[in-house]
Amino acid sequence: MKANNEFKSPKENRSTLSRRQLLLGMGIGATALATGMIGCTASGNPSKDLESNAEDGAIALKEPTQTIDTDVVVVGSGMGGMSAAVTAAEEGANALLLEKQSVLGGGTNFAEGVFGMGSDLQKEAGVNGSLSDLLAIELEFQRYIVDYTLWDFVVNGAEENLAWLMDHGVKFVELGQGPYAGIRTQHIYEDHRGSTMIAKLEEAARSIGVEIRTDTPVTHLLMDGDTVVGVQAENGKDVLNINAKAVILATGSAGSNNELFDNHTSRTSEKYMWCGAPGLDGDGIRMAGEAGMGKPYRLMAPLVGTTVEPLGVASQLAALAAMNPYALWVNQDGKRFMNEWLVRTAIYAPNAIESQHKAFSILDQALFDRLVEKGDPNVGWGYYVYKDAPLPDAPKELDQELSRESENVFKADSIADLASLLGIEPTALEKTVQDYNKLVDAKEDPALGKKAEYLTDKIETGPFYGFRVKGAKVNMFGGIHINSNAEVVKEDETPIAGLYAAGVECGGFQGETYGITVPSSCQGISLATGRRSAQSAAAYAKR
């Protein structure tokens, strides 16, 4: 057996998650535990670019200390990997699941729900509607840059796949709804965390004979010519050669790999903060490239909301500063560049940030105090910082950031002094503030269209606060090119024998802007591709 490409291996993030971190979705270390979602990092740059072009030359595999034989090996244990492992076993294959972290679930642990249809919750709520109409809205939203043949099996399998989850004991507590379609297809997990679902699928996997190994990162694919015949993995000092008839890559894409992000998307990583789970370094994309796929395919970042680095999405101060439609937003020149209400849409504000060199939110003490004491129905971040709730932790977080002289959090007694701290010409910012206050008095924003209901708070009561705002990068979409059988394919659409992929690292589902027409689409896509890849892999293994 041999592999057929030379590459530079990514540095592995071997961070682990405690039970508390899993339940709260908070980060590692004192600051992150207090404020941030797990994995939030300023650099988010674990490795070199993972592009691989299958050039001549062999990968130097290590001498194995152990050899294992199985039918199907699944790499990764989020929704895509776990559903694939259980389905492969149900299809009669011997399945082995490998996870490089010490706990299972990956980014799925922090997912809120899954896309699906046909549940009792929907029947009780009188939900009806056409999923084909919902898909049509998504295709229009993405300007048809997405692959209909992939979306088709996700949507058409929505009822069967949701029933499959429920048959395995997964429970849902409520329904959510996307902003552009009336049909309520989002099924919210217990505790609003996918970790509860992962626990049920783990139980199902073990009961049906799936072998699960954690702390076992896969480093290479094993190749026999152009055919994938297994993986090489490591566990401590042990090097494992796992011979398999089929391999399913479900490693969760490459959200924490900034070089891959910069080289293969149209965006700039410096304008975003990585707020996802640890270990999403692009392992699957790299290995698919080793096997001959070619360059990363249709990579994009699901940017959801805005935040302040290094606070992350679970921070009350970050919500007050960056998910606040009442604040004034300006660019590096001290000029308004967007309707601040866009922060409530979650997906458009990051696009506006990308258009500027830097972006800042500005508010005064009166607005700060109002939100701390009373909260507001329009200020918050999902199930991490609840809307309409007071934000008592924000002052403590503010003091902490100011005491460490944060590069993203500023306080001054005058607008001119604040401008100097932000690197903005003082008279320019003073004029913008004066003009904005007139808009508040007039309850009208002719230039940018901010509605009167959000033109409620002037910037006039010192001290004044400025925050460098960034888009929240919670995951990555794409990187691996698959067909509708979930086979990994080369640039000429030829399948790579023995290689399949599942989850959000499958490219073709998203355009430049994260679509929330189909709410919890990440989980829905992962479930559908996980089951489809396992059905295809199990059938291939039986040949």
From TrEMBL:
<keyword id="KW-0560">Oxidoreductase</keyword>
<keyword id="KW-0472">Membrane</keyword>
<keyword id="KW-0285">Flavoprotein</keyword>
<keyword id="KW-0274">FAD</keyword>
<keyword id="KW-1133">Transmembrane helix</keyword>
<dbReference type="Pfam" id="PF00890">
    <property type="entry name" value="FAD_binding_2"/>
</dbReference>
<dbReference type="InterPro" id="IPR050315">
    <property type="entry name" value="FAD-oxidoreductase_2"/>
</dbReference>
<feature type="transmembrane region" description="Helical">
    <location>
        <begin position="21"/>
        <end position="39"/>
    </location>
</feature>
<protein>
    <submittedName>
        <fullName>Fumarate reductase</fullName>
    </submittedName>
</protein>
<dbReference type="InterPro" id="IPR027477">
    <property type="entry name" value="Succ_DH/fumarate_Rdtase_cat_sf"/>
</dbReference>
<dbReference type="InterPro" id="IPR003953">
    <property type="entry name" value="FAD-dep_OxRdtase_2_FAD-bd"/>
</dbReference>
<dbReference type="InterPro" id="IPR036188">
    <property type="entry name" value="FAD/NAD-bd_sf"/>
</dbReference>
<dbReference type="InterPro" id="IPR006311">
    <property type="entry name" value="TAT_signal"/>
</dbReference>
<feature type="domain" description="FAD-dependent oxidoreductase 2 FAD-binding">
    <location>
        <begin position="71"/>
        <end position="511"/>
    </location>
</feature>
<keyword id="KW-0812">Transmembrane</keyword>
